[in-house]
Amino acid sequence: MKIFCKLILIVCFINSIVSQAQNYPQNYFRNPLNISMQLAANFGAVRSNHFHMGLDLRTNSQENLSVLAAADGYVSRIKVERYGFGNAVYITHPNGYTTVYAHLNKYYDKLDEYVKERQYKDEKWEQDITFQPGQFPVTKGQLIALSGNTGGSAGPHLHFEIRDTKTEECLNPLLFGFAIPDNVSPIISGLYWYDRRFSTYEPGANGIAVKKTGNIYSADIVRVNSPVISFAIKAVDKANQGFNLGIYQAELLMDGKLIYGFSIDKVSYDDTRFENGCIDYTKFSRDKMSIQHLSTLPGMKLQNYSTPNLTGIITLQDEEIHNIEIVLKDVKGNTSRLTTKVQLSGAANKAIPTGNNVLQPNEAKTITTQNAEINFSKSAVYDAVNFNANEKQDADPNVISSLINLHNPYVPVHDNYTVKIKPNRKLSQEEKDKVVLLFDYGSDTDAVKGKWNGDKAEGQFNRLGTVKLVLDNSLPSVSSGWKDGALVNGASLRLKGTTKIGDIISFRAELDGKWLRFSRVKNDFVYIFDEKCPKGSGSHTLKVTTINTAGNTNTQTFTFQR
């Protein structure tokens, strides 16, 4: 009876996916560009700490291509931000969907003027503005913006999303019938198995060579020394266009029976970080390899992703040879299969870590060292972690605490955890106000202003690495590309921002005493000359005030001729 019920659930899950795809309106939305749709990335592709939530459309390595409304509707929201989407437009449509267009250079004239007026009114460049249906109606094919490379973009392209207006879930745009030719099956390049008696993180992935004969992939028999294992796959989809796209659908079968499956049809931004529990995070962050688990990690709670009630965890109760088949599909139905066999061969004894420093999924935990306290929520980890926390001294005179080592950067944390650190000497109140927690992830750093809780400074982070308290009395600054008092004939003013520790968290520019709109491009600040400073307007004084993470403020004055 249990097997029958499980089969019914699987069939319902698959039928639900098929039904959703069939129910999405086909050919309702048009290509948002005037050139053919070519993908640089698809929905569900693996990114740092998130799934890719839309399509990245190529713009022939150019900026300022016309971006068009995919269907009738109205502009319901715009965003202007340093990272993320950069400049973005949201259009709400009468059929219950919202389309999103990101990394734009410029909005269409009427909307662009409105945003500019709002920025000057608020004296704030970053914006997140919502609109009523009658303010900015648009028709299908209408120009809404020019494409660009703003925000968290590594090159010119258009990021395009389709969302459910009510739930704000991002939906796979390729299920909406866009005419993108694709007759290329997913390409498999690696197979991995994991000892699941404790955790996928320890000892980690065991690689198996994959061979291809014709259209069939295979691997030699996988002999394992653990009775509890799982598999993962390294694969990409090419979709006729050469870019490495993400895998849409996967199934794992043992002895002809489905034991796991996933399909990436929809994901909310609230849940997209669960991606870290769907991949081998260690391989991704350390080795830049995208390997997706064909099993469920106990702390992975992503909805509508994997087949209900099937974990993909294999318990081998004998030393017989078992058949394994992995089936990968793209949205068009192009299919690849990998076949192999698995055999338990002399199970090795394994000591399962226990003690106060083991983090378990779905359990909150506090770990302490001599001078630090680390508080994890019950959602912190996807799989068990034998957590290593220790301290050592740092010779830098500006460092006022031990260096706290928090395991390593190659194990993911799902949400923010709190670190509290005791300084190594008594601080004045003035000094306390200049303390930041400086975090080193190995590949980059982050800094947050310390919040004092008793005798400890605390901060929140969502990655692991090393952290210490630093007394920061340094000033942020900007540097200009012209000599003071010089005649500036270019199209813009560009200021380069620098900080010793942390970031410039506040920037304000005033031209002859009035706020001037500078956009922020990574660490640069850019003003495009307009009616606020026309050619031939003579001498000008530009006053710039910056504030860094520690709260240190610096005011600088520049002069130029126009």
Q: Helix count?
A: 4
> What is the CA-based Rg, rounded?
27 Å
Shape: flat
Structural class: mainly beta
Question: What is the strand content?
Answer: 35-45%
Largest sheet: 10 strands, antiparallel
Please report the distance between the alpha carbons of the first and last residues: 83 Å
> How many structural domains can be distinguished in the coordinates?
4
Number of strands: 48
Q: Which runs of at least 5 residues are low in confidence (pLDDT < 50)?
A: 1-20
Instruction: Provide the helix percentage.
Output: under 10%
Average predicted confidence as pLDDT: 94
Summarize the structure.
This protein has 562 residues and is mainly β. It contains four helices and 48 strands.
